[in-house]
């Protein structure tokens, strides 16, 4: 015997909104991981290495944010 469930339009909209929110959180978490990894790697460099790359110490957070797509 088959069982059918009637899904109201408001329930479909609710589930779509939940799905979109979960996807947005997943994307933000991936961006955060890129930000933290980039920040960590740049902070490990000494002043000379940063200078060789043309990066000032004050630019590290901005560059990490840009790498993450923020």
Number of strands: 0
Oligomer: single chain
Work out the count of structural domains.
1
What value does the Rg take, in angstroms? 22 Å
Low-confidence runs: none
First-to-last CA distance = 52 Å
Quote the average pLDDT. Answer: 93
List the secondary-structure elements in sequence, H or E. HHH
Portion in helices: over 70%
| Largest beta-sheet characterization | none
Structure explained in plain terms:
The termini are far apart. α1 (9-44) runs antiparallel to α3. The chain is rod-shaped and about 75 Å long. The model has no long low-confidence stretch (mean pLDDT 93). The chain has helices at 9-44, 47-53, 60-68. With 70 residues, the protein is mainly α. It has one domain. It has 3 helices and no strands.
Summarize the structure.
Helix content is 74%, strand content 0%. It has 70 residues and is mainly alpha-helical. It has one domain.
Give me some keywords for this one.
70 residues, mainly alpha, 3 helices, 74% helix
What's the layout of helices and strands?
Layout: H1 9-44, H2 47-53, H3 60-68
